[in-house]
Structures are given as structure tokens and as C-alpha cells.
Specification:
The structure holds two protein chains of two kinds. Chain A is mostly helical. Chain A contains eight helices and no strands. The chains are: A mainly alpha, B mainly alpha.
Amino acid sequence: MQENQWPRNPVLTFWQSKRICSDNARDSAAGERLKESTGRRNIGVMDVITPFTPVASTIGGMLIGLSAVLLMLFNGRIAGISGILARIFPPYSGADAASAVAFVLGLMAAPLCYSAVIGGPVSQTVSANAVLMAIAGLLVGFGTVYGSGCTSGHGVCGLARLSRRSLIATVVFMAMGFATVFVMRHVIGG
Amino acid sequence: MLRLALSLIAGLIFGLGLVIGGMANPAKVQNFLDVAGIFDPSLAFVMGGAVAVTFVGYRLVFRERSPLFADQFHIPTAKELDARILIGPTLFGIGWGLSGFCPGPAITSLPLMAKGTLIFVPAMLAGVGLARFVTQKRLPRRLETTGGTA
């Protein structure tokens, strides 16, 4: 894995030095690399350094935008994934539910197509903590539908429409995301 | 049939955007959220690219009277700020931080079959069903306008 030098802020080493790590993290290869590159002794298992990819991420973002525009042009629908998932549940209506299913299948085809083209796997690090992932899944599923949108519906389409509700929603879920990772990694410890 | 095929293609483009942009990797998402640690600002570029293209594209599309393969544009009409617009994103943000997954990347990651994804997605669908049930009961008419917002 390519090592990321971004950003190396000396002020932040205070927090990094306070970290406590879980035992299994010491066996993780990624953790070893991280220890070498940062000089930190204690590294959490999920703390895999990811390279800063401004070009690929901008291209990826533009593709997401293109998809959102096409969906509006073709179906007159906001490209919000939580809304699309919600339309698969009752009370669904035939045509809408069918195009929602088609969109979901398209999403799932993406990593397979990507792998076929580049000839390698999609790199991904997912927590294997079953309890954590189950709780997180419930929160994400319930929260996005209850709040009428997720990263795509509020964060992309809503902001592009200059919706005040979406702006507030985006600020709230971003803030909670930052706060949650901060508590998880720097207060409780990795 | 054409509408289904176009929805599939839109989904594929969206998913490719997530994979290429790095959003399908929860570690990258959590590093974006970890400003005080191993910060990776890439995701700001995903959001920036997506919002910029959508902002311009929507303005072009809305010059049309109606979508090509549907009767009308389904634009969220709710304007008022209620508790739901704070409670929902609060719960979502916590789950997003814990897992590094939001709905799109989680679904896109399914075929990669990571153990965490296989636990996350059914739990997420249960949450979607639950929220759909709760909002349906209390606000049967509102859902039509806000359910498609997402």
C-alpha cells in the first residue's frame, strides 16, 4: 500500500500519542506498516492509511453526478440511494419499484465491471465486528429513511438543488460522522 | 423495458463513481472523518465533483417540461424544518462513522462479500423497513413527497 503523507500536522500528534490499541491490531499487517510510517506504537485494526487520491476521487464524484443527472433526465427521480432502497419496500408501486431494483443491480455490477477492466480486486477494508456492523447498519438504514436522505440524496442532489433542508441534514450527518470517528479512535481508542 | 435498462445503467455509473472515487472503501471514508488522525481528504473531492456536475446538469434537465420516460419530475417539496430532518441525519451520521458505510457504498460492496458488509446490509434494510413503517403510519401523505428525497 502506498503511504500517505497527508497531512502530517504536528499539533495532532498529541491525540495520536494518547491512543490505546486493541490487541489483535498488533498482528495486522496494515497496522505494522502504519506503525513504521508514523512511529506510533499503538494502532487500531481499522486504521489503514489510505492514499490521498484527488484526481480519481474527482472523476468518481463526477460519475456520481452524471448518474444523478441521467436519473433525473430519464425518470425524473432524485438519485438518493436510501430513497431508492425505500421504494423497494411496501407500499411500493410497480414501475417505481422495478426501476429501483434495476438501479440497485447496476450498483452491484459496478465493482465486478471495475475488476474486470482493471484486472484486479477492488481494495476495501471493512470492519468484521459483527455487533458494530449490525448496529451501524440499523442506524444508517433507519436514519437515512427517517431523515429523507443520505449522502447522495441530501449531500449531492439536495445541495445541488440548493435545498435548505438538505444543507442542514448534510451538516448534521457530517458533524455526527466526524464526532463518532473522533470518539471511536481518539477517546475510546482504536 | 427501456426505463429499466436506463435505471440499470445509471446505477452502474453511480457504482463505478463510488468505486473509482474510493467511497466504496469504508477505511477511506473513516479516514476522511478522522481529521485529528490519519486524515484523507479525498472524499471532499468526490462530493465536490458530484455536486458540481449535478448542479449544472439539473439546471439543463429542468429546462425540459418533463423527464423522458416518466410523467413528471419528482422533486422533494418539503420546505419546513421538523425534528425528522435532525433526528434522521444524527442517527445516520453515527452509523456512518461507526462503519464507514452509507447506503450506496454498502449496496455496491455486496458482491465483494466482506463479512462486515454481509452483516451491515441486512441490518440496514431492516432499518429502512422500520423507518418506512414508522413514517408510513404517522405521516401517510408526507411520505410521497419526502420518501423520494433520499
